[in-house]
Specification:
Elements: H1 10-14, E1 22-24, H2 27-36, E2 40-45, H3 50-60, H4 63-72, E3 74-79, H5 84-98, E4 105-109, E5 115-119, H6 133-146, H7 148-167, H8 169-173, H9 189-201, H10 220-233, H11 236-251, E6 265-266, E7 274-275, E8 278-279, H12 280-297, H13 300-316, E9 327-328, E10 331-332, E11 335-336, H14 344-351, H15 355-361, H16 388-401, E12 409-410, E13 413-414, H17 415-432, H18 435-451, E14 460-464, E15 473-477, H19 480-497, H20 500-517, H21 550-565, H22 568-579, H23 584-587, H24 593-604, E16 607-611, H25 616-623, E17 630-634, E18 651-655, E19 658-659, H26 666-674
Parallel strand pairs: 1-3, 2-3, 16-17
Antiparallel strand pairs: 2-4, 4-5, 6-7, 8-9, 9-12, 10-11, 13-14, 14-15, 16-18, 18-19
Length: 679
Amino acid sequence: MNRLGDETSPYLRQHANNPVNWYPWGKEAFAAANASDKPILLSVGYSACHWCHVMAHESFEDPATAELMNKLFINIKVDREERPDVDTIYMQAVQSFSGRGGWPMTVFMTPDGRPFYGGTYYPKVSHPQMPSFTEIMHRIQDVWANRRTDVYTQADAITQSLHHAAQDNPTHLSRLSPNLGETAKQTNGAQDMAAAASALRKQYDAAWGGFGSAPKFPQTMCHEVLLRCYLHNGDQDVLNMTINSLDAMASGGIYDHLGGGFSRYAVDAQWIIPHFEKMLYDNALLTRLYLHAWQITQHPRFRQVTNETVSFVLHDLRHPDGGFYSALDADSEGEEGKFYLWTPHQIVSVLGDNAAEFMAWYGVTDDGNFEGQNILWRPVRGDLLRSDSISKSRERLLEARNQRIWPGLDDKVLLEWNGLMLSALAEAASATGNQQWLEAAVQNGLFLLDQMRRNDGRWLRSWQAGDTTRPAQARHLAYAADYAAVTDAFTRLGEVSGQSRWIHEATLVADGLLELFWDDTHGGVFTTGHDAEKLICRPKELIDNAMPSANSAAAVALLRLGTLTGRQHYLDRAQDILALLDDTAVLHPNGFGRWLEARDMSLSGITEIVIGGDRPDLRKALWCKHRPNTVLAWGEPYNSPLWEGRTESLGYVCRNYTCQTPANTITEFLANLDEVPQN
């Protein structure tokens, strides 16, 4: 019996009609494995994952394959986005087995959840590089039946390794490279950023931007490090690394030139061929990056990309009540990228005489650049500002595209991802003065408070709208990354709106973060709370991947909130987190971008701005430039040393709660900002 029909996750519901006897993760599945003496087959994926769909069509929907799965295993299906704790643990195991990871993830486990073998996608038919899924299942059954002692020996060894890695992450990280024993020997934020930029330069693709070769991911946090380096020392070469990369990404097919927003990554080095799924977290982080690049360079094309990316999220990934959905699928009508592809004939049928100009602008050819069709891209890199005629043609083609069958929408609302988007939206609203974006940010904050926090104050990870068969509900205890992201989001919302309630709410979330997740022995935050389900180990995230790790996000959030509120224990816990890695982040910036942001804030010091009353002219002067090591208090006062003795209508520039002469004019205010000393 397939037990996924009552699940809220869109990914799990995609598999509810499989002939596989799927269980959701839970006690019932493990009890069934123990009772039947069968190993567990754990399959982990997410709704927008193309290769997850491929394996589902080839194997999970095939009656013969499903019959074998049901005969040999207890089968569990997990949405990695709802259960990042499960995903993290077993992905580490798969990487130890195969040397690589990815999704779909396939893990074979003992009935008590200890992994003994695993991989990623297995094809229906074997080929020289990979056995078939059926062959793998027969091999696992053979060792389970005939070499059970070996199975448990392997499971014990892997589980012990996972436990040690979770408990002693700095030691585990020392295996990242033989150079990790070196010391960066830096003494301040500017030197740290310069050393990190030097390390990134070695991986930088000077021809096409970004880091490394295909496949290419945006690596937004690495570029944030480069921008910080430029702000410290004015190194134009460092800034050009980011400008070149941002131009290449926004000109390539990874960017949706009709609807705005970015796909998850490019399969080629030139950023032309995307992996077509569009994730909320990517677009949140890229909104932030393009916004900061615009604030620094004032290049209109970066403002345009920021505007269009935010518009995509608000139009295509937003629940009417304000929550942000998770993703748009890579596939539509069973084909990868079909929604986004064009032939010259299709374009001519929509644009008529204007088609030739449009096709030249977006690199459309008869042969195409993707399986005989065209992904729109801009062949002249960085030339993104459209003429009126191109803009009108773009609108007409977008209207025509909207009549197509859309990719699947993963409409669950994830707390962490919403926190990332809320932070980006709040920053964007402040920098641009866009009141609609601020209103959307406030609405999102209210949605999170109303829908994703229990009456006892415990936050939940995932919310799903209701339908005729089920009510709307939030479920799964939130993780440290959720708490860290929302702490930062509410703090920034308080800074932008001037409403003190958001700073108060941020302190409540931060208190919950430290109460539920803090490691009293080694410092830092565990992934799961002490009230959560006990898994085979309790992971602790230190490395920044596609999103900031829970610990780096917590360090940034606690530093900023602690500075605004004067709560020293927030600042102390942030320093404890930074102490976990010492110079590791500087030596390996591609895995610790958000860590380096926190480290720079700590070493360089945070500038405290207080604006008494409502002085939009002073706020605009502050926000027109990217000032990453700055916090702002204005509007409604709250309990903080920053508000003591402040006079209405004056701007105060402070460091360690000691302020320069209050400023009444923009000229005086900016002069005070320029004179703030750096630690």
